[in-house]
Structures are given as structure tokens and as C-alpha cells.
Design brief:
Layout: E1 2-7, E2 10-13, E3 18-26, E4 33-39, E5 46-52, E6 58-60, E7 68-73, E8 78-83, E9 92-99, E10 115-116, E11 120-125
Amino acid sequence: QVQLVESGGGLVQAGGSLRLSCAASGRTFSGFVMGWFRQAPGTEREFLATINWSGSNTYHADSVKGRFTISKDNAKNTVYLQMNSLKSEDTAVYYCAASLGRGWARLTTVPQYDVWGQGTQVTVSS
């Protein structure tokens, strides 16, 4: 059983930064791929970034490339999403997800992930 807990969301002014964290616990292993998604009201869940368990491979959606960066602290089993130059359209609930045992690939769709966190709200005021 794998559990994911996100934290770090909140209210920030446009142009500001936030760092989201996703702590993984339970039966974790090197075959996992981790991802960040977000969902604004009335929209589908949107892929943002993905990273393999060792942190050696990453992939970011074009929509956030250059502003958002995914990373991982292996000692803490924690994945981060550093978000800079935030805009009002970045307002959403942000979710961490884990794909179990598929090995590294650019996993960008919701069905490719097996476990999800509860989400953390990010609100960007203009």
C-alpha cells in the first residue's frame, strides 16, 4: 500500500513562488514514476510534470516548462514541484500521483497513475 500526502499549497500573489511537497510512504520501490497534475473547477485534470524514482529523468508539460520544476529527495521519499512566476490561471487543486512498477516513461495521462494524493489548493491572486 502506497500513500501520498501533498502539502505546501496556499494563497500567493501573481509573480510569486510556491513549492509543493508530496511525501510517499508505504511500499515504495525504484520502479515508481511520480507525477504532478492540477485541476481547476470545471476542467479536466491537467498533467504538469513527471519524474522517475531515482530523480534522474524528468519531463514537464510545455504549458509550465521554464516556470515549474519537479524534483525528488530520495532520502525523504518526497517529490517537489517548485512553481515560479505564478499566474492567476495557475489557481487549481494540485495533485501528486504515483505509477507503480511501469518503469520510466513520460507518463502524462490520469489513467497511467495508480495512486493519488488528496490534493492541495493553490490560489494565485492578481
